[in-house]
Automatic annotation (TrEMBL):
Species classification: Bacteria, Pseudomonadati, Thermodesulfobacteriota, Desulfuromonadia, Geobacterales
Descriptive protein name: 2-amino-3-ketobutyrate--coenzyme A ligase
Subunit-level organization: Homodimer.
Species for this entry: Citrifermentans bemidjiense (strain ATCC BAA-1014 / DSM 16622 / JCM 12645 / Bem)
GO MF terms, alphabetically ordered: ligase activity; pyridoxal phosphate binding; transferase activity
SUPFAM superfamilies (UniProt xref): PLP-dependent transferases
Keywords linked to the UniProt accession: Ligase, Pyridoxal phosphate, Transferase
């Protein structure tokens, strides 16, 4: 390797020594409760497939049919020649599902934050953001050139302090919070944050990537959970988790969404989502609107698994959602624990999470529960976790 890249070798070695070097496994099958990973069939406790829709026959059939009609790619950005009838139909359906006037469908949840934030605020404005907000929110804030003021995690009093100290100095203000925090599984106090913003005339925005399909009536999300439908100014979502497909959504009033259509760079300068993905998303909305069985099964599985983990002596943090962080602490131990889970017979696919995704000393194994897990799957997982936890001293 050229000397000019020798620093990469040094930094990579440092990551390895700290237990922070990411090992990327390769998937050899469709996403489901059991998957082939690195050539081995394992119990999947790793993906965000909350409702088991990623390999659902109705979604697959919708995607196949769409390819026959629309082809494999739109070959254009949405604003020039890439907006299909399917895109507009999905936007209308998602807006109705969320109880708002309009919605914009973009390439991913990450793109949704990069599209929405710089469209709403810029130089001379201020953003109030939760300390543990997702990386896509952090990057969207940076792109906006607005002043960024961080308040302590889910701390409404600290948020109010930050607002009072800064509000009068800026043109516009935007508050952004994750709805469900993806590493800890706790939820934002959205009702209290909304009341605070209403008092001070602040634009409100929530990223509900891990709340859609999970919280609210029939999986309508955290805004519905707090009965704030149509009141929160911007609701960001993803179609890649509970919906099982791909894409992001920005939902809100027709005035705000039309403005974002005019200004959002991911919408204006990156090709539209494929017809196959869009049709599969529509099929997912159909399933969610038809009944609540999948959401109820997800929560039943969540309660069962969490009770079993607590009973075994594991620390699973403050999660109130299907996200189940198994707190380990040391990053190297978390990596070893994950490796032992995978190498067991049968193996469990559950990846370690360490710094900088979570703070130093807060490494964990993040378990993601799905409606597609059977009771036998959950019992097997509990047994293997308990055996390995005892063997490495994480539990007694």
């Amino acid at each position: 390797m050229s000397e000019k890249f020798e620093w990469i070798n040094e930094e990579m070695e440092a990551l390895k020594q700290q237990g922070l070097k990411t090992h990327i496994r390769t998937i050899g099958s469709a996403c489901g409760p059991w998957m082939v990973v690195d050539g081995k069939k394992v119990l999947n406790f790793c993906t965000n497939n909350y409702l088991g829709l990623a390999n659902h026959p109705r979604l697959k059939e919708a995607a196949r049919a769409a390819v026959q009609i629309w082809g494999v790619g739109p070959a254009a950005v949405r604003s020039i020649a890439g907006t299909l009838e399917l895109h507009r139909l999905l936007e209308e359906r998602l807006a109705a599902f969320k109880g708002v006037e309009d919605a914009l469908y973009v390439q991913s949840g990450f793109c949704a934050n990069q599209a929405a934030i710089p469209s709403m605020v810029g130089k001379g404005d201020v953003i109030f953001t939760d300390r543990l907000n997702h990386a896509s929110i952090i990057d969207g804030c940076r792109l906006s050139s607005a002043r960024v003021v961080v308040y302590e995690h889910c701390d409404v009093e600290d948020c109010e302090r930050a607002i009072k100290e800064n509000l009068g100095e800026y043109r516009r203000a935007l508050l952004i919070t994750d709805g469900v925090f993806s590493m800890d599984g706790d939820i934002a106090p959205l009702d209290r944050l909304f009341e605070l913003c209403e008092r001070h005339g602040i634009i409100t925005m929530v990223d509900d990537a891990h709340g859609e399909g999970v919280l609210g009536r029939g999986g309508r999300g955290i805004v519905d959970h707090f009965q704030l439908n149509g009141k929160f100014d911007l609701e960001i979502g993803t179609l890649s988790k509970a919906f099982g497909v791909m894409g992001g959504v920005i939902a809100g009033s027709s005035t705000v969404i039309e403005w974002i259509r005019q200004k959002a760079r991911p919408f204006l300068f990156s090709s539209a989502v494929t017809a196959a993905d869009t049709a599969a998303c529509l099929a997912a909305v159909d399933l969610l609107e038809e009944g609540t069985e999948l959401v109820e099964r997800l929560w039943e599985n969540t309660r069962y698994f969490k009770e079993g983990m607590r009973g075994a002596g594991f620390d699973i943090g403050a999660s109130v959602t299907p996200i189940t962080p198994v707190m380990i602490g040391d990053a190297t131990l978390a990596q070893n624990f994950s490796r032992m889970l995978f190498d067991s017979d049968p193996g469990i696919f559950a990846m370690p999470i360490g710094y900088p995704t979570v703070p130093q000393g807060k490494a964990r194994i993040r378990v993601m529960i799905s409606a597609s897990h059977s009771r036998e799957d959950l019992d097997l997982g509990l047994d293997i976790f308990t055996r390995i936890g005892k063997s490495v001293g994480v539990i007694g």
